[in-house]
Predict the structure of Aminoglycoside phosphotransferase domain-containing protein.
Amino acid sequence: MVQALNFSSVEVMNRNDQAYIVKTAQQKDLVTTIEQIHYLQNLPDEIKSYFPEITEFNITAESVSYHMPFYKMNQLDDALLDPDCQMDEIHEALTLLIDLLFSHIYGKDSKPVPEDFVLKTHIQRMEKRIHYFLSQRPDLCRLILSPALKINGEIFTNTLPSFDFLLREKNLESLTPSNLSFVHGDLEANHILFLKQQGEMQLKLLDPRSTDKGGDFAYDLGKLFQSIHGKSHVIQRGQFSLKYELEKDIPEIEFYVNSGRPSEYKDLFDKVINRINERCNDKNWEKRTLFSEAAHFLSAPPFFLESDCDAAAGLYLQGILLLNDFMKNHL
Ligand SMILES: Nc1ncnc2c1ncn2[C@@H]1O[C@H](COP(=O)(O)OP(=O)(O)O)[C@@H](O)[C@H]1O
Ligand SMILES: [Mg+2]
């Protein structure tokens, strides 16, 4: 994580042979972490067991911290990469997750949607993060600012020039949810823990990021799609090949993500889509989710600037591929 963007830390501690986690935050993460404590402490009883339990917390003007048990469970991003982890078990965990989300979370606390929701939530966030990425990686200036890129022999529109198209009234309208609701807010694979014990699947959803204003559930699902569709966890771990010739008129890039267990991933992804279709009556969910997924990729590079495998560039390129695919097939 980048120091300039991240002011929280998570430490494993031990007391009476019991491992527990202390999460501490300062500066810009102070308010978010107070909101997180509020979220976790005010969960409806029927879903409390799916989230970490706060055992103590401390809030001062400079710093906030809370304790929770250390859950020795499988983490979705690691499990997807572990050849010993059965896809059937991952599928069972995701089915339970989708059922939980649609039965107990997404329908709750319906809130109106601000008119500028898509602009603020996605477009301005991407814009801000891309400019920060550029400021930290001037060597990638042509990758980030060239109007078009040739990736694996095909021409793609770069991100900033795509915004004019995304911001057309008809497109903005089709990307705006009909209401906001209770959500998790940061449903990444590294926040999804699962474990099957004595025939029963357990889930813990870490690091929720939602306020009283609520959110679009497709933003949550976009985070989940980032791993089970966009393979963000693979890119984050440097399992991709990347070569570029940036000085050409249209920069030329070769970018291949190692797909690991391709047919198993595809099967899992198809099953997840089917389950969501069974549980969700919002016809527009998939379109907004695919857009959110691309936007999450394009907003991610600043958090991976210190990666020694250039994950920041890999995530950015995956975002361009996904955004182009989305604009071509869904707008
Ligand atoms: N209670 C927990 N039990 C097990 N692992 C945890 C727990 N809390 C956090 N982690 C691990 O630490 C990582 C970072 O924690 P998180 O709450 O997401 O902090 P941050 O706000 O820094 O993203 C998680 O992705 C997970 O791997
Ligand atoms: Mg986190």
In short: The first helix runs from residue 28 to 41.
